[in-house]
Amino acid sequence: MPLRKSLTVAASLAVLLTTAGAGFAADTPSADPRVKFKDGERFVRDLADGLSLPRDQVCVELGKYDCNDKAFRIVLGGVEPYDMRILDPLENASLAAPIAMDRVALHACTSRVMKDIETPASAVLFKAPAGAAAARAPNKAWMDTTTITIYDRILRRPATNAEKAQMAEFYKTVSAGRSDPVAAIEKDWVTLGCFAVASSLENTFY
Amino acid sequence: MQKNYWTRRNVMAQMGAALGGSLFAGQALAQAPRAGAPAVDPKFLIVMCCSGGASLVDSFMAVPESTSANAATVNAWPDRLVQKIDGSPFTAIDYSARAIGAIPIPFTGNQSNFVKKHHADMMTVTMTGTSVNHGVAEYRSINGNAAYKGRTLQEAVATHYGAGRVIPNVHLINGVSFTDRGTDASIPSNAFGERVAAPNLWPLSLDGYKGIKDAPSRDLFEKAREFRNSRLDPNSEFAKTFASSARLDEWERLRGDPLKGVEGEDLISKLMFFPDSTEMPLSQFGLQASQLSQKVVNAFPKYKTDPLEAQAAMAFLLLRYGISVTVTFGPDLNGLLKDGASIGFSGAGGGGLKDGDLINTPVGFDFSHNDVRSAQSMMWTRALSVTDRFITLLKSEEYKDGQSYWDRSMIYFATEFGRTRNRPANAMNFGAGHDLNNGFLIISPLVNGNTVQGGVDTKTTLTYGFDPATGRPDPNRTMTEQHVYAGIVQALGVPTPGVTLPDMKSMRKGMA
Question: Mapping DSSP to helix (H, G, I), strand (E, B) and coil, where does residue B214 land?
Answer without folding.
Answer: coil
